[in-house]
Structure prediction request, 555 residues.
Amino acid sequence: MNTILKSLVSIILFVFSSVWLSNAQNNQKNIVWIVCEDISPTLSMYGDNTAKTPNLDALAKESMVYQNAFAPVGVCAPTRSSIITGMYPTSIGTMHMRAGKDVHAWGKRVYERNIPINDIEGNPIRQYSTVIPNDIKCFPEYLRAAGYYCTNNKKTDYQFAAPITAWDENSGKAHWRNRPKDSPFFAVFNFGSTHESRLWKNKDLPLTVHPEDVTVPPYLPDTAISRIDVARHYSNIEIMDSEIAVIINQLKEDGLYENTTIFFYSDHGGPLPREKREIYDSGLKVPFMIKHPNASLTGNSNRLISFVDLAPTLLSLANIKPPKHIQGKAFLGAYEKKSRSYVFGSSDRFDEQTDRIRSVRDDRFLYLKNYYPKKSKYKDIGYRKNIAMMQEMLVIKDKKQLTEAQELWFDTKTEDELYDCKTDPHNLVNLATDPIYNTQLARLKKALRKHQKKHIDLAETPEATLIKNMWPNNVQPQTTIPSYTLKNNKVRLKPTTKGASIAYLLVNKPVKKLNYDSKWQLYTKPIPVKKGQIVYYISERIGFKESIITKKTID
Prediction:
């Protein structure tokens, strides 16, 4: 009887554990991010039908379309640092565009400057990889620890080297199709066809949107050259639409489309002059939509979304509790927080031009605090002068032929700016001195002060000083080799640098050449090993140089 009872109990426990495991696996949603560059909400789901985007249109019909989504900075690298960490760039030292070194740890890519760079006090700035606080991780590391297969194809641009612990794959070949069978996945695909540079790099491609069919924003001269550049941008959007169709079709081919959560967004606002790098809606407001499994949540949402919220939301959707240090708020999933009242933006150094502006935006009003009001709103950035309409606009300015709305960009700033984004979507009428809006101005200024009291702003320290703090003696710090123990046929590794993570390879024969694509595994628990196997391991802390790769053969 006891034997029968034990067998019955074993069967019940096996069935229960199988059901629990199955339910746990079912709760691990597959998630895909489709990320484009440098577009404002100039798409049909936002009321702009200039570009024909049948693939995005179809996706939007099955998605929740967010009407109030914002990047924290109007340019890619600081914003991408916020997305990957769930932190405000100003809190982790990644607010300046750009730090200069955006390499993965093996040093394959280095951004080379050809112009001198100075901080706000005139001190020269070297190229560097930002050393962020030691408790901050790239959020895919938490997903990997939970069993997700995480891929990034292929842009990083985080202001620091993308650690090998962040991604299972990080290359132009990275794809969910390379995952172990039945593993849940998080896959990011970045498309650069709408990037600012494509305004001139694609100039010889046919225009699929005609210049006479576009609307030129009032802050830009309405000329033949402007219309060609605006049409080029809309034509680039159409190129992007055809490119993302490949990913959507692959999901359908694999039978994954219906049950996969798909995010679509742009990394910040549009590429035109007075859009990219600006702290107005033209630089921060973005298209953003999410297709839930089986199109279970569709329509339009006015909820305020900041990109600092993406990391905790992704973790929440995967049923992973976001770490306490993360500053963003999950807006979906098991750990959803209450809706935001405000989103915050920052503007610091962009390439060779340094400034400091902070913003707070609610669902209607935008407030800007200018820390250097004697500076011009316009920043004379060399890279932007590759745009034909920017060159022409400067000529028209010199001839004093700009309209009042266009001349505003070149005015000297005032300490405060306030805009009603409902009646003034282009942010042209500064209401800060209008007594009718004193209440709104005071409320938003108070919200900004409260935000700054809660979150450190590292831009208060000159950038050259920050670098000296990050890189003592002007040398990048290096992660130390982890400790290694072998006991009971298990390898135990432990970081010896505070805040470091560990990656390892377990193989049966020596690897001839180790590189970033060597299928490194994230170390989370002791590794079962057999005699004769080889363990390679490496440790990384974000912003530090990686440790030396260590090899151990199991005796």
Q: What stands out?
A: Residues 224-253 form the longest helix (30 residues).
